[in-house]
């Protein structure tokens, strides 16, 4: 680790996929932000790699897509909806909870998630 | 939790794996965090563990377990470590005492050690709890919301408070670490107050801790440990310290030092609160200084006989006074103590000035027989002195007051921040002592007279302006402005008639200044006097034309310059003879008489129905005199003499050389009143430098039996000789009898003003209660003088007698009605 942390961080899914996204985008998630906090100095902060054991590659991909989407549109009023396949909704909800990212919550159509669960 | 199939997703199974396994890994990691090995831990793993425990409804258990873990850590590790660094010296003596330096140093070192240890423990705890909170974020989110519990961070802070700071350090004593901390900090503050240098940063850190801890888990502002535990003690010890300090300073130091120390203490404590302790205490500690050092002592300090405020005022110690002012302003918005001291001093100084003026000007009962005309002119014989001295005293009085005023104003501006209240009381004291001098109006008018006569020579416009402005400032203080007006009129008339004024511009400036200050009514008559003078100039000119046109080209003809005065506007009494009897017209020589008659004819032609009365006592004449000296030389001099003197001298034109006129002869041939005759003869025959006449016998007094000769041997180094006779030509202080005269006149005039005011008020109101009438009259007249209430009552009586007013019967309170 150099003195100034790298601009990009790597997120790893439980099944071994790696996603490299901007640090600022990643830190929208409270969990990831704390994980990377240099003053706490956990191993993730040192390596810049966050292994998110509980998330599958597919979900993490969607999460990363959201994080980048959020980063890109954060200062705009009118933004296009993000496309979320219904079958991913429930798992994404859980991921959002886990990642402490309330914004992500708001993007997920909950009825769809619940409907899918009932099926 | 990976996905099993695309189309079928089940809710994640509750992880029912035993709580204990997860907890034990978690607990081990938390311990690692405490021992600062976090870098080897994966946040994600810890987080996931905690997450799962919470997800599986074990959050509450987790919370309690973490708390237990923390308590155990704090009690068994942190407290033990801290207890070890407390040296026995800190436990023995808990009150800061001024013992030997040796033990002080020891104690201080021990104190610093324990403070450093506490600080480190605290900062570690904070850091670790921050990390742990982050890891347990999910738990906090769920537990705090669901169970209304304080977050784990807050809970652990409470644990630190109870298990480390508040717990007894040794089983055998109940001294807690908090007590040690407090006494160590207070001890160091005491050291700093007595001039030592301490580690402020260290103390600040420990104070941060007290500010960061609360009595309750809800963390109200007022429940900060700093406020509940430390501040009261801090204030308490500070109070003791400053009580002693105040006593010490009062005994050892002078007032200036006291105020300087107090000011620097205030600054010092402010700085201490900002950099060493907490800004929260600033108000409290300033309050302590305010009461202990200022409120209880300042009156003594201000009153200190040899170096209190009096001394500062006397020696222009602006800096010191500013200190006192700032201190007093802290405790008292109205600054009563300081104001009173300043007022007292001003009145004292003013009384001194009054007293000097009084001793200077003992009214001399001897008749002023021979005087030179200006107070500044030192020629003339000894008899002038007392009167001149009085005038000098008058001018000096004004100068002194102006100096005092300037000094006080300067102090007021620079030391008292131009404080409004102070100004009012300063003004009051000035006005008080100025009015306590019964002659203030006269003195002030004399001051103007002096300056307008000669003081303004060679001064620039702005200087003149400043000088007049100063005088006007004093006029503001004078209550009896009508009295001032009388004197000013008298003095002005002399200046105008004798052409003694240096600059008419300055005179006009003065009038306009007075107009602004006192009002139109006040200057009306003064302005009329100026107008008369201007009209007279024109009149003289047109009379010259008239004479020229008449074709009367007599080369010997006497030129006439005339001042026609409106008798109501001018103070005629100073022109008439002393005893007030009507003046008999004197006999003019025929050259003069013809001119007089010709002018009367000219004037009455222009303005029929007017009456001219001649005032020879106010005039002057230029005559050319030829002296045939005994050594054969012929000397010519131009003599500037009074009208009377001119008449006397012209008599000698008809007297053969070597012959004389007796006093009686002169009197019968001129009919000049005795009083004026004696004066004029004195200045012609007795005054050393202007002896145009010779008197036999040569004595200082003029007696009816004396003989007078034309002095052919008159010598003077100047061609033009001014023979300054002129009765009371110089404006000088009045004698006792003159004063009585003036006062009597003043009272009459006031009576008139009061009656006029009463009538004005009643005409408007028709009916008015007695007390109200009095008040209204007082306000109406306030700008001119302060009337005596008894006088007003008398005037009301007199108006009732003359049926201007009537008493309204059966009215309570008594009232009056206006009779139209």
TrEMBL record, chain A:
Residues 9-71 form the SKP1 component POZ domain. It holds the Pfam family Skp1_POZ. SMART domains: Skp1 (SM00512). GO terms for biological process: ubiquitin-dependent protein catabolic process. Gene3D superfamilies: Potassium Channel Kv1.1, Chain A. InterPro entries: ELC1, SKP1-like, SKP1/BTB/POZ_sf, Skp1_comp_POZ. GO terms for cellular component: nucleus. Its main location: nucleus. It comes from the Eukaryota. It is found in: Nucleus. Keywords: Nucleus. Belongs to the SKP1 family. Component of the SCF (SKP1-CUL1-F-box protein) E3 ubiquitin ligase complexes. Essential component of the SCF (SKP1-CUL1-F-box protein) E3 ubiquitin ligase complexes, which mediate the ubiquitination and subsequent proteasomal degradation of target proteins. Controls sulfur metabolite repression, probably by mediating the inactivation or degradation of the metR transcription factor. This is E3 ubiquitin ligase complex SCF subunit sconC.
From TrEMBL, chain B:
GO terms for molecular function: ubiquitin protein ligase binding. Residues 439-685 form the Cullin family profile domain. Keywords: Isopeptide bond, Ubl conjugation. The keyword Ubl conjugation applies. Residues 356-386 are annotated as: Disordered. SMART domains: CULLIN, Cullin_Nedd8. One of its GO terms (biological process) is ubiquitin-dependent protein catabolic process. InterPro entries: Cullin, Cullin-like_AB, Cullin_homology, Cullin_homology_sf, Cullin_N, Cullin_neddylation_domain, Cullin_repeat-like_dom_sf, WH-like_DNA-bd_sf. Belongs to the cullin family. This is Cullin family profile domain-containing protein. It comes from Elaphomyces granulatus.
